[in-house]
Design goal:
The protein is mainly alpha-helical and 240 residues long. It is built from twelve helices and two strands, in the order H-H-H-E-E-H-H-H-H-H-H-H-H-H. The chain is elongated, with a radius of gyration of 31 Å.
């Protein structure tokens, strides 16, 4: 059997070197600065063709995984990343890729209009709204709600009524299945822009079309039309 040499038989020079090495190792570890968590940069997603190959016939499942990854990206181990520190061009690329995999999905548009657009940065807010506008035009009847929300953002937060009117007009023109309130947005935005005659013409045409059937809504819009034409005012015609 192999026997171990007793410690007393180890030369003192070797023991001294061993002790010195251990001491240096401990001292080096103590002197090192504490490790800091660093934010990992958001990379661009693979091309859509590559993603479809990776999906192995399950694009919806991959879209959900990508959504979870993007949604959790701002909370990395040991560090929390504020939205304004993210590269929004890459955020848009991820949201676009997710919608390419799952065209019927709504969550990427919700994230853009109600999550990433909350950052107090005009350029980033506008980037999100323009992304929603672009994706709205690919499927207006399913995506009008998110564009309506963006119209409100650019009008009230970004003080850009012309862009808000552009969004509202797109909803009226392209989203035939949109709710009445969304299709009427452009009328009130025209009024806010100081164009009451155009607003009155549109509102009069809307009432004449018979599209609005709810008595309360008809009454409200009729009173607003009277106010626009100067035929009288009422509490129902007060501007929002």
């Amino acid at each position: 059997m192999r026997t171990e040499r007793p410690l007393s038989r180890v030369p003192r020079a070797i023991l001294a070197l061993l002790i010195a090495a251990v001491s240096l190792q401990v001292g080096w570890q103590l002197a090192r600065p504490r490790p800091e968590a660093r934010a990992e940069a958001l990379t661009r997603p693979p091309a859509t063709a590559a993603l479809r190959a990776y999906a192995l016939g399950e694009p919806l499942a991959l879209a959900q995984l990508m959504t979870l990854y993007l949604q959790a990206f701002d909370n990395q181990p040991g560090v929390s990343i504020p939205f304004r520190s993210l590269d929004y061009e890459r955020v848009v690329a991820w949201l676009t890729a997710i919608l390419d995999l799952d065209p019927l999905g709504q969550y990427p548009l919700l994230m853009a209009s109600q999550l990433y657009s909350q950052v107090p940065d005009r350029a980033r807010q506008l980037a999100m709204c323009e992304f929603v506008y672009r994706e709205f035009r690919r499927d207006p009847d399913r995506r009008w709600r998110w564009l309506a929300h963006c119209a409100i953002i650019v009008k009230h937060r970004l003080s850009d009524p012309r862009r808000a009117l552009e969004y509202a007009e797109a909803i009226t023109r392209e989203a035939r299945g949109a709710s009445h309130w969304a299709r009427q947005m452009r009328i009130f935005m025209l009024e806010d822009l100081g164009e009451p005659e155009a607003a009155a013409i549109l509102l009069g045409g809307l009432l004449a079309s018979g599209e609005i059937t709810d008595p309360k809504e008809v009454h409200f819009l009729t009173e607003r039309l009277k106010a626009l034409r100067g035929d009288g005012t009422s509490s129902g015609a007060t501007k929002n």
